[in-house]
Structures are given as C-alpha cells and as structure tokens.
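Dear Dr. V.,

Thank you for agreeing to look over these. As mentioned in my earlier message, I'm a first-year student in the group and I'm still getting used to reading structure tokens, so any feedback on how I've presented them would be very welcome. I ran two proteins. I've put each sequence directly above its structure. The first is here:
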Amino acid sequence: MNASPDLHALTGAYATHALPEPERAAFERHLAECPACTQEVAEFHATLARLGSAQALVPPPGLKAQVMAGIGEIRQLPPVTDPVGPAPRPARLGRRWPRLALAACLALACGLGAVAVQQHNEAARAGAEASRLRDQQASFNRLLTSPDARTSTAASGAAVGTVVWSPSRSQAAFLATGLPALPQGRTYELWFNDSGTMRPAGLLPAGDGQLLLTGRIDGAVGVGVTVEPSGGSAHPTGQPLMLLPLA
C-alpha cells in the first residue's frame, strides 16, 4: 500500500495518544504495513518511558502545607490555669510580670514571624520549581508531538542517552538514565556538534534526568555529553562520553 505522506508524520502523536479516533485507526492500518513507522513508534515509546522516570517532582512536606494553610487563621491555645488558684507570688515579681509578659510576647512574635517568612520563601521556591518543571514538561510534549520529531539513542556502559529533536522547531531535548554520579564540583554538560565545533547546550543536573537543550539546532549534526566543572565550560575540557547523531 502506498500510504499518504501525512501518515508517516504521525508517529509521535500516535505514541503520545494524541490522535483522534479516525486518524488513529487509519494510522494503525498503515502501521501494520510500514516497518519504518513501527520502529519509530517503538523508539518514541521507549523515550516516553524514560521521560516518565527521568525526573520526579517531590512535593513540600505535608506538615509545611498545613502550617502555611492555617498560620493566619488558627489562634494560639489559651494558657492552662490551675483550678485551685494561682500560688501567691512575691510583690516584686507581680510588678514585673506585665513587662516580662510583653517581652515574651514580642520575642515569640518575632520568632513566629521569622518562621513564617522562611516557610513562605520555601513554599515560593517550591512553587516556582514546580512551575518550571510543568513548563519544561509542556515543552517536551510539544516537541514529542511535532510531526517531524525524531529520536537518536546511544549508550556508554550502563548509561543510555536519547535525543529527541524537531527540525521544523529547530529544538532538541536530551534524556539520560544510568549516568554515574559525579563528585562535588563536576557536572554533565550538553553540546551541539556543529560539524566538529561544540556549542554549549545546557547542564544536566543529575545522572538520570531530562533537559530541553538551550539554543536552536541551526544545522548541528549531533549532540555530545561531557563532564565539566560546576557551572559548565565554554568549550569541552575532555572527550565526549556520548555523541548522538542528528540524522
């Protein structure tokens, strides 16, 4: 069967379950007779599996959420009083008591205020990180469902890296599993290979993770991975651990 060229462009959308029913049925009929699309769908499924396990967002502890939700509404418990009545106090302490109570209240208020500010800042940072991860995931999804999305995979020992790219979007992403943990002060850096000239494309914070590469593909023929000092380098300082072709 000579399939319409449009069917060959639906591999990414099919793998992410983004096709409406008529197109899905037509593509599955095409898939039964097209080994190239079958292989590409299998590669997309493997990439999506790595996407699901590469990076997880750890929510803030439940206690922190409860404190932040109730800090402006829950009143302080009243002091416990002795039913028999307070014991007699020396006159000097009685005269000093209002000032001591005021000082204690001020110290408590300052302490609670500092805790509230710290918790607010931590919650804001967690919210910003969650928003960043959601935006990154949305960008990954748009890249994966691009009609011309392609994948390339390479291995180095137990480590496996996959590049997903779209020529029409001039955008690429990298997913890794099994990269060894690095000592303090070292990080993995990604590079676009511009026919032998390596162009920085971002830092991978951990051995297992995903990264939307910075910069456009702009004719790059591949993507490389090196180990660099924390903060990255302008040029590779060692041999690439992986070189993945964009072909």
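The second protein is here, in the same arrangement:
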Amino acid sequence: MQQQQLKGVKILLVDDEPTILQFLELGLLNEGFDVQTAQDGITAFTVAQQFQPHVAVLDVMMPGMDGFEVCKLLKKLGPIAVIMLTARDEVDDRVRGLTLGADDYMAKPFSFEELLARIHARIRNQFPNLLAEQSIGPFRIDDRRKEISYDGRVLELSPTEYELLKFLVINQGIVLSKAMILDKVWGYDFGGEENIVEVYIRSLRDKLGDKEHRLIRTLRGAGYRVDLT
C-alpha cells in the first residue's frame, strides 16, 4: 500500500450509481483524502466550484450532463486532474475524453487499488507541492535530495536511474509500456532505441537484488510493472 504525507488533498467523486459512490468514498476517506461526492454532472460542477478539488474521478455515462461535458467544465475551473471511468472500453471514448482534457481513463470494472495508484500518480505528477517525502511499500522517495531508499538502504543511482525507478514505483501496480517510460523519463524527443529501457531496468534489478524479477516484473508485449504486494 502506498503511504504518502498528504496535505489536504481533495477528491471529487462523480457517479450516478450510489453503491459505487459509497464504496469509493469510504475507501478514499480511509486513505486520508478529503472527499466530496455528486450523482450527476450539474451537481458535480456546483460542488467543484466550492470544493476546488485536486482530483475528480468522473463517470462518463450519466443521465443529463454526461462525463465528457463535466470534464470540459471542470478543466475551465483550474488545474483539476480528471480520471474518467466508463463501462465502455471503446477507443473513441478514450480519445474523446483525453481530447477534452482528461488526464487518465479507466474502464469498469476496476480494482480500488488500481484507482488509488492512479490517483497518487496524478497527485505526484500534477501537484508535487502537496507531497512531502513519499513512502511506498519498502521504498522511500526524497525528491529534494534525489534519493531513493529500499528497505532502509539508500540506493546508489544515476540521475536517469533515479527518475526511472521513481516513475515505476509511483505508478506501482500499473503496467507501463516502453514507449510511455521513454516519454516520461527520457522525454518525447528522445531519438535513441527502446532497448535503452531494458538496459536500465536490468541495472535497477541488480541494485535492488531483484534477481527473480518479482519486484520489477516484465509483461511480454506490454511493458513493466512494479509489484509491492
């Protein structure tokens, strides 16, 4: 489980299914978030204006004003990170949502642990000032000192190894493709080969003592995933 020192992180949950809404609300309250809920788009926008959430978890299929329209309105309020939820996993839906400014997209059904990991990733990427040092499983990330500790031991990492391991750990539980890793760690204009990711992953495994690849897993044809459970 990812533990972070949170300073008033506010989450807005929007879903027209009361059971889902209550389940997510209880789970996120238990994680220490400040949570507000809404069951329709108009209420969501009204609540957001007063609440000013950092992250909105937003269902797409709602009566009246759908999630796409709500996303567009929320983005006009300020730098709100929007994670869209839908029962339909259609490419056109994902493209439309991302075009309107959504920051992430999840298809139902989903696990609470994955949603939590994605919320933490959005906070870390878009609101780093809300986080102090992060403790994620056996890892401790100190961005100010550019240090990562594993099981209490400070790892000797190059700047690129630090950024790669941080990206993997912060997104623990999520499969990250080589293309995504290259974009986030090396930059979109990186002109080298994708194989550089494999080289750095191998080095990190050596430094972590992860000989059996149980910590940094390879999913053939998909990418890499850090497993901390």
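From my reading of the second output: Residues 1-5 have pLDDT under 50 and may be disordered. The chain has two domains: 2-129, 137-226. Does that match how you would interpret it?

Kind regards,
E.
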